[in-house]
Amino acid sequence: MSKLKLRNVLAGLFATVVVAGGLTGCNTKAAVSAANTATSEAVETEVAAVEETPEVRTIYAVTGASPRPFTYYGDDNELVGQNIELVNAIFDKLPQYELVWEVTDFPSIFAGLDADKYQLGVNNFAKNAEREEKYLFTDPIFSNAYIVVAGKDVELPEVVDFPDLAGYSYVGQVAINSTTAIENYNEANPDNPIEINYTEEDLNAQLAGIESGKYDFLIIDKPMYWGYYQPEFGYDLATYQLKGYGVGEGLDSFLIVSKTEENQQLVDDINAALREVIEEGTSKEINEKYFGDDYSPSYN
Are residues 164 and 236 in the same domain? Predict the structure, then answer.
């Protein structure tokens, strides 16, 4: 209750005291005493209510609304995706915060976090040393995995290691994790290299190229392929587990928080609520909705 409203309450109670005194004559003192007691109790109640009402802090969460199915716009132009629903479920348990979503281009996410314009970055972020110097990280929200997606004529073992891919043609964009991993393999194995086709094509075009035989394989997030590309476009391709890049092998995703002293408490609160969301099965339900499988992290 505001100070002005509290004054108005007191004024009304005081007026009641005066009127009561004027009407009762000889009972004025008793009326005033009773009214004073009522006034004191009312004031104490109102002050206690003001003191007990927690302050709500607004948290601005930002996303690039891509890639699907982690974060994107749904059919009704509403922001949806695994990351989005999981964060909403977390903040449902944190009444001390009001969550406000904003969407921007990917580079502007970091600029906004640097300036504390946004407190929370939500875009299936991986952790690296450079980012750890600049931002706070929550506990893992998602345990990722990479798979090899190849044409039906490509012969590979069920679990693929990089030497198994030697002699085949890979397609991928410059500087992404899978391309860098293959470049590192080729540098260490110049006599048995993997052919690299650098491209600016989107993933849909790359997958179509593999299906047509233009390329032999690519490496992609397992939940991204099975949660969106395969069911959406119906690719008839083979998939293989990539050795060392399976679920629970360190490919975790996180929420990024702007690095301020105040926001360390925000990280602690998010982590506590996140564990509740995982333990009660809400995280599993969200993952199965978007990916067809559960990729919830384990904190054991």
Answer: yes
CA distance 241 to 147: 5
Residues 90 and 176 in one domain: no
In terms of Cβ atoms closer than 10 Å to its own Cβ (0-12, 13-18, 19+), residue 40 is exposed
**Alpha-carbon gap, residue 77 to 293, rounded angstroms:** 25
Amino acid identity for residue 145 in this structure: A
Q: Work out how many domains the chain is built from and give that number.
A: 3
Bridge partners of 137, per DSSP, are: 256
The pTM of this model reads: 0.73
What's 64's domain CATH number?
A: 3.40.190.10
Question: Do residues 164 and 132 share a domain?
Answer: no
Pair 107, 73 in one domain: yes
> For residue range 232-276, what is the model confidence (pLDDT) as tens digits?
999 999 999 999 887 766 678 999 999 999 999 999 999 999 999
For residue 14, give its domain range: 3-40
Residue 97 sits in the same domain as residue 128: yes
The alpha carbon of 18 is separated from its chain's Cα centroid by a whole number of angstroms, namely 59
User: Contact at 8 Å (CB) between 154 and 233?
Assistant: no
Q: Is residue 227 part of a domain?
A: yes
Question: Is residue 206 included in any domain, yes or no?
Answer: yes
Among 116, 126, 153, 106, which Cα is nearest to 257's? 116
Other Cβ atoms less than 10 A from the Cβ of 106: the count is 11
Q: Outline where DSSP puts E strands in the chain.
A: 57-63, 72-73, 79-80, 97-103, 120-125, 135-137, 142-143, 146-150, 159-160, 169-172, 195-198, 217-221, 238-242, 252-258
Buried b (16+ CB within 10 A) or exposed e, 123-152: bbbeeeeebeeebbbbbbbbbbbbbbbbbe
Read off the pLDDT of residues 189-248 as tens digits, 9 standing for 90 and up. 999 999 999 999 999 999 999 999 999 999 999 999 999 999 999 999 999 999 988 776
